[in-house]
Amino acid sequence: MKRRILNIACIGAGYVGGPTMAVIADRCPHVSVTVIDLNEARIAAWNSDTLPVYEPGLDEVIRRTRGRNLRFIPQREGAAAVAAADAVFISVNTPTKTQGAGAGKASDLGYVEACARYIAEHALGHTIVIEKSTMPVRAADTIKRILATSPRVGTFDVLSNPEFLAEGTAIRDLEKPDRVLIGGETPAAVDALAEVYAHWVPDQAILRTGLWSAELSKLAANAFLAQRVSSINAISALCEVTGAQVEEVAKVLGTDTRIGPKFLKASVGFGGSCFKKDLLSLVYLCEFYGLTEPAAYWQSVQDLNEWQKRRFAQMAATHAKKQGGVVAVLGLAFKKNTNDFRESPAIDICNYLLAAGVRLRLQDERVDPHMFGAVLVDDHKAGFDFFCEAAEAVRGADAILVLTEWDQYATLDWRKLSTVAAPGVMIFDGRTVVDPVAASAAGLPVFTVGIGAAK
Ligand code: NAD
Ligand code: UGA
């Protein structure tokens, strides 16, 4: 039977649910889209002029769609939207479990299970339930089991349609995706979802697979990306001690068409809400199936990342402690063009410095200082303050750490900054974004990840 999706509900109005549904509504004006969330403050923000997610281009898409065929509502008002929906996306968080079997590694499916129960309770007729969240392979079994308990006389298909957008480029990624992946067992349901995407995604970019392949492909894709960052970061350390330059090495590697140029940027380590949790989820799955060596392999990608952050923090702490013990941290977001700092390398590096008794002066153009302050641990009362401008943050600093590649850090006026920083200040560039010529001309020594100290 041919099915058409004209009414969509999405549970979860976060970094994925909000932008993804906004782009679907934009490209499919004939489809009515309702985004539901338990977090009423977040829903209020989606309905305001200050969206809860900062993404270039998002404001414009929301302006075109909100109130037309896109609406954001609190979950307590969501039952009718689920009942009316032909398709319900589950786009809630799937964090690492903190207790019970697999704690510290396995994904916590509690939020997904709550969604499945909510759908089972309110859905009417035939409903296509779509996994948009990143799930462990075979999670669809759990969802199907819960849906089977529906008190209503409804029927369900479950599809896996993982999201590949990256933050900071989410709108571009959604409007022009490399691929859209749909895994499912019922061709009519897969076709119905493919028909939605076909309004703007070329047919050859819509990949159809089995359910388990789709679920596993998402975890594997993130693990491969994280592995590339850890690989180049492992090389970065070797560059620093041998005189090789990581950017030159990366360029050589990237021109091999079998390797390709992307994801070869050395850094203070990868961050973001997903790489670590998805790697750990993969490690857990391997262990669960008794695959010890593959588990150890993927664990090593995460371990290298922790090491990269730690060695950078150690170098900066050692330098700052020899001087007045004050460090300016420029950049708190896990990458540029986002206000997201979940699992940002800046968190671990700041906490390492605070534990070493270093006083911090923090600056980021998008991250909310109160929210960032809440994840810092300052048991030794070393102290931290936030500043709006980089020039203020570096005042009196013995070390300046650049932890996010915000464009503004590439054009900082180092001559001016050198007059307000402490004598003996050193720059630690964790993103190869600082202009070393300008910094050296201002008399400031620079340590760059993957290059080492400028001579
Ligand atoms: P998020 O934390 O920003 O948003 C999740 C939202 O779900 C929250 O607003 C929360 O209040 C809501 N929620 C949780 N349980 C709920 C329930 N039972 N009913 C209603 N609302 C509920 O998370 P996110 O970054 O959007 O990620 C969501 C999923 O997408 C995760 O599985 C993640 O791995 C995956 N993913 C994220 C990205 C990304 O860039 N952030 C990219 C691809 C995939
Ligand atoms: C990543 C993937 O790129 C998306 O495809 C995926 O959908 C998403 O995770 C997810 O599942 O959440 P995201 O974490 O938003 O997207 O951002 P990335 O661009 O992948 O960057 C992740 C981290 O790696 C950042 O801290 C970034 O600075 C770092 N990175 C990235 C490097 O250090 N070097 C690189 O060359 C690339």
Descriptive account of the structure:
- The protein is α/β, with parallel strands linked by helices and 455 residues long.
- The chain has two domains: 7-209, NAD(P)-binding Rossmann-like Domain (Rossmann fold), CATH 3.40.50; 275-453, NAD(P)-binding Rossmann-like Domain (Rossmann fold).
- The protein contains 17 helices and 15 strands.
- The chain has helices at 17-27, 40-46, 58-65, 79-84, 110-122, 139-147, 170-175, 187-197, 211-242, 246-254, 275-288, 292-322, 345-355, 369-374, 390-393, 414-420, 436-441, and strands spanning 7-11, 32-37, 70-74, 87-90, 126-131, 155-160, 180-183, 206-209, 326-330, 359-363, 384-386, 399-402, 426-429, 446-448, 452-453.
- Strands 11-10-9-12-13-14-15 form a seven-stranded mixed beta sheet. The protein has a six-stranded parallel beta sheet with strand order 3-2-1-4-5-6, with helices on both faces. A two-stranded parallel sheet has the order 7-8.
- β4, α5 and β5 form a beta-alpha-beta unit.
- α1 (17-27) packs across α3 (58-65).
- The protein is elongated and about 75 Å long.
- The N and C termini lie far apart (71 Å).
- The mean pLDDT is 97.
- It binds nicotinamide-adenine-dinucleotide and uridine-5'-diphosphate-glucuronic acid.
